[in-house]
Amino acid sequence: MTPNAASASSGPSRRSFLASTAVATAAVAGGMPLLAACGGSDSGSRDGTTSGKTAKKLLPAYVASNVVTPDIPSKNGSAMGFTSKLALSDLKTAVPKKLGKGSSIKIMSPFWGTPPKGDNPYYKAMNDLIGVDITWQNQDGITYDEKLGAVLASSDVPDVVVIPSWNMGGKIPSAIISKFADLGPYLSGDAVKKYPNLAAIPSGAWQYSIFGGKLRGLPQPAPAVVGIVPFYRKDVFDKEGWDLPTSPDEFLALAKEITRPKAKVWACDDMKWSAFNFFGVLSGSEKPLGWNLTDGKLVYRVETEEYLEALEWTRKLYAGGLVHPDAKAQTQGTAGDRFSSGQVMIYNQNISDWWGKMAEQAGQNPDFRISGMDIFGADGGDPTLWAGSPAGIFAFVNKKASKAVIEDILAAANVTAAPYGTKEYMLTNYGVEGTHYTVKDGVPTKNDKGNQEVINAYVMLASPAPTIAHPDLPDIAKEQVEWQQRMGAFTKKSTFWGMQITEPARYTNLSNDFEQLEDDVVRGRKKISDVQQAVAEWKKQGGDKLRDWYQKLHDTNGSAQ
């Protein structure tokens, strides 16, 4: 189910990180930014954010779901976890009354893979459950940016458009404000109680769905905890007696011990994203999270010593020959494949790979065991981690849609946001029993038809609170949630966390070149001094003015903390 967005790179790019995070929310059964007091008119000509009392007036009332009780409650910003066997006879009903009134609705959404035919049994069953006639206009997720821009620039916008946060560059935020409906009259305050499953979505995800001063998005909630995990081959570590490192220096020492090029074994793949976490670098996933008020001054991530230290440490791994050569060349293969084949012992990727790799290897290598090491601090002490965005993908409703169509779209979202352990969840995520999946010993297993049809569709409309559940591998679900909870204890929220901020258009591409520069530096193609020079240029070209803009935004709105 994971989108093929990482291509053949050695580690997660910013986009592949976000893509895997977002779709992981569907894969692990749950979920995976702008606030506008500075303006945010429907014309889309204003930029800024909406916070404080203004935002609170727009938020749906939060009413926790009591339909199902998780085995592991959410803690420290983690997902909730389910580890019990799944019995279809015990499934609860989350939508006792069909709310849809029969509207015909067209939804454009990114799709990774080959879309199924529109009249398939899964789509028919979902539409019947909801009481609407939804037609999916699936678009290639890899080139979604291009299609999205063209559609939003036209006068022919579908009833619903799904937009991942990594596709919100350039003019897309302005188009969101000008093209999509205000859902506040239907969802703000107690109005949301008509849709109990939407009311159970955490308030942070709704606040992040405010664009241009209006509640416009239906969110896929995401855990606030770091999503990138430093994975290791636990089966090999146990066999060799290797101890897990507890500092960057210990990691380097272990990497030297592990690496045996003649045996085609290297310690790791590209570890840049974990290095950012080891050294406490501000999030680079979305621009507002890269800013933080430090000692009374707003600082951007690339200006920090931690940023340079993380790059220098990663450069040492490459310079020492401790990283797989294909990761350095960035020409073939993937980090995950090199890990599975035993060519690297450590790699970093989205937390969804914890289950994904175990499931992938179950029939091929029964001794295979993946696990995630805890993130440590630069000095070997506790890490300083930064919270990610409270939502990663949004569905938007055409502002020209009628009241009846909007209400039917919300009826559909109320079904897709049903929690794990309900009949609605099972149909949304697994399809029709017997047609798309079977259950044996409490484990639902999709057949070929299920894998072809029950994918990338209704889960993109709205999701329940972040949830991790793997009926086939409950121990993995438990490990994932517990890892999130441990890391969540060291997680902080940066100044603009949870605020959907629309930067002035002139600054939207200001930081775009840094990711490529990072990759060049760690591989030895550029120097740390080149980064320092790039930061100086960034300041001159608008970085300092953007800082002033953020400072004014903060002075006006405060932080979301």
How would you explain this protein's 3D organization?
The protein is an alpha/beta fold. The protein has two domains: 95-224 and 389-465, Periplasmic binding protein-like II (D-Maltodextrin-Binding Protein, domain 2, 3-Layer(aba) Sandwich); 228-386 and 497-557, 3-Layer(aba) Sandwich (D-Maltodextrin-Binding Protein, domain 2). It is built from 21 helices and 19 strands. The strands form seven sheets. It has a five-stranded mixed β-sheet with strand order 3-2-4-15-7. Strands 9-12-8-13 form a four-stranded mixed β-sheet. It has a two-stranded parallel ribbon with strand order 1-18. α11 (272-278) crosses α12 (305-319) and α20 (514-522) packs antiparallel against α21 (528-557). The radius of gyration is 23 Å and the shape is globular. 53% of the residues are buried. This is Putative aldouronate transport system substrate-binding protein. It comes from Streptomyces violarus. InterPro entries: Bact_solute-bd_prot1, TAT_signal. Belongs to the bacterial solute-binding protein 1 family.
